Amino acid sequence: MKEEDVLNPEQKKVLENTEGVKMVVSGPGTGKTTTVTYFLSRIIKREKALPEEILAVTFTNKAAEEMKKRVEEMTGERPHVSTIHYFAARILREFPARGYSSDFYIVDDKEQFRLIARMSRELKLDKHPNEVMEKLTLARNLRDRNILLREGLEGFYHQYLAYLREQRSIDFDGLLTWCLDTLEKKPAALRSCQARFKYLLIDEFQDISPLQYVIIRLLAQGWGNLICVGDFDQGIYSFRGADINIMLNLKKDFPRLTTYYLERNYRSTQKIVRAANHLIRHNTRREDKPHWTERKEGEEIKIKSFQDARKEADFISSFIKSEVQRGKSYSDFGVIYRVNTLSQILESTFSGESIPYLVMGGPGYFQRAEVQDVLSFFKLAADHRDANAFNRAALVLARMQGSSFRSLKANGDLMEAARKAKESYIRQLPGIVQDLSSRSSLLEIYRLVLHYTGYLNFLKKDKSSAGEKKVDHVEYLEEVISGFSQKSNCLGDFLDFVEKTGAASPYHDSVKLLTIHSAKGLEFNTVFLAGATENMLPHYRNQSPEEVEEERRLFYVAVTRAQNRLFITCPKVKKQGKGSRQLSSPFIKELGLESDRNPSKDETSIRRGGMVYHQQFGKGEVLEVENNHRGEKEIKVTFPGSGVKKLNLEYAPVETDQ
């Protein structure tokens, strides 16, 4: 289709001039992908650059393929679209890093884990490999050597790099560090790359790290054509080293930067957009941006509290079944939550109600490796002949004792063969199983498994974010078992429940269950934001001012996934049955649902020539007051040091300064 038939005025402005450095601030649902696709297509169609002279960087391979496909459909050409890691590898094949040849081997995450685990043992480093990997990633992406010094990892890191070089190998983060090193230390490499790429486009720019940014900045110094697309209000990856300040401060590095705003939301109703705007303006690390919709007012956002998570899940499943009976599809519904543990009760409830569902972005709760490790002892207690459960349980004991694992093969009685095994961890298993089998309480079995194995304490040694999640998953299993025990204490019944809940849905038409991070970029007709409690949003581990702002951005992302209906649900009690009471997320009040206007703002007192105060820009003089095409009052204000700003009083944090 022609540009004029597809693009709105704001999108067309982006395409008017393809030259120079641009930042496109694209709020949720504002047609970012369409704009980017037409931008690249215009460059190719108007022969401003050959496809191979364009470098477009995305953050996932899936997004890269989608962008290439859409541009090819419009132009018949495929520009170079890739992740920045793929681009870095390509550069290093052509211009080998110092101490390397072009045929280096790329170490994946699993291989990196095994290598760091082995080196940690040899060097007697008292840190879990996951924690080491996480700190190395942060230190390199933030370009902050102090992280290594604080964690006592600098010496380890240099030995790790030396070993990789000996093996002619580079890990994923190393692709970026060596790419930057090559561009900085080899002028010919930099000149070649700068000359080759006439246009650079960076998608999801709010998620860029300082390391990635320096690479992009060097490349942009060639032809000077750079377009950065993103939304600082959707930056949710600081744990990987992303820094939204790069986007907010881009003008410092590129003084001639032109900023465009994609402001029209095509996705959500007016009530949802208004609430999202009201919420996010509580953050200080951001800039005001226009964000509106011409869609209908829509239904009220519904906030619902329930006695516990079971009642919450019952409501969600009942509502979905009722709507499907009225003609809706299961795929119209997305249930979003902060952490993976919250999916379990939804999975079991949906299974019990025969609602097809799909857990996106990872395995379901009962399929997680750490949960399966604990459940292997339950399975073995129920059936001593279960060879798969036996070997998994034996592997757990071997890991706890630091022993090498050997699977046991027996034609006859597994337990009898285990008693005669050479390995001590295998010999102790029959006694553990016998004790577990004699217990009549599921909770007692759970606690004895942890007692005999020390598994939970083992997991707690991993201080990485991934390790903390594994601890949460195993600890949450006690809550799951406690809730089930109120119906039945039969081991067989519990394992049937686990198997039924864990069964993968074969249906394409299914309810989607996913974390907020996995929901980024998706949309649903109806969204349930489940488990919206004070200790989940913001998460209890993220309580510094900067962390709370990122948690608020997560809440914002969740809210803006909804097209027509949004339910925010909160269980009042933390555990099923008896448990501590909990409050709803403080972010709910920040949605401004009681009043669609800012009560502290007296718009009638804002006049031309008057003074106003803005939370970010300070005191300024009002130059103009007018209504826009939607009947909303807008003002132009000149702020000393910040220039003239156009502000929408519907959303801007301003008040009169008498």
Describe the overall structure.
The longest helix has 21 residues, at 465-485. The chain has 28 helices and 19 strands. By secondary structure, the chain is of the alpha/beta class. It is globular and about 85 Å long. The strands form four sheets. The chain has a six-stranded parallel β-sheet, sandwiched between helices. Strand 17 (633-639) and strand 18 (643-648) form a beta hairpin. Helix 23 runs antiparallel to helix 25 (465-485). The model is unreliable at 595-601 (pLDDT under 50).
Write the layout of secondary structure elements.
Elements: H1 3-6, H2 9-16, E1 21-26, H3 32-45, E2 54-58, H4 61-75, E3 80-83, H5 84-94, E4 105-107, H6 109-122, H7 129-142, H8 145-150, H9 154-166, E5 169-171, H10 172-185, H11 187-196, E6 199-202, H12 210-220, E7 226-230, H13 245-248, H14 250-253, E8 258-262, H15 270-280, E9 302-306, H16 309-325, E10 333-337, H17 343-352, E11 357-359, H18 369-382, H19 387-401, H20 414-419, H21 424-427, H22 429-437, H23 442-453, H24 455-460, H25 465-485, H26 491-502, E12 511-515, H27 516-519, E13 524-529, H28 545-559, E14 562-571, E15 611-614, E16 618-627, E17 633-639, E18 643-648, E19 654-656
Parallel strand pairs: 1-7, 1-8, 2-3, 2-6, 4-5, 6-7, 9-14, 10-12, 10-13, 11-12, 13-14
Antiparallel strand pairs: 15-16, 15-19, 16-17, 17-18
Helix pairs in contact: 2-3, 3-4, 5-10, 6-7, 10-11, 10-12, 15-28, 16-17, 17-26, 18-19, 18-22, 23-25
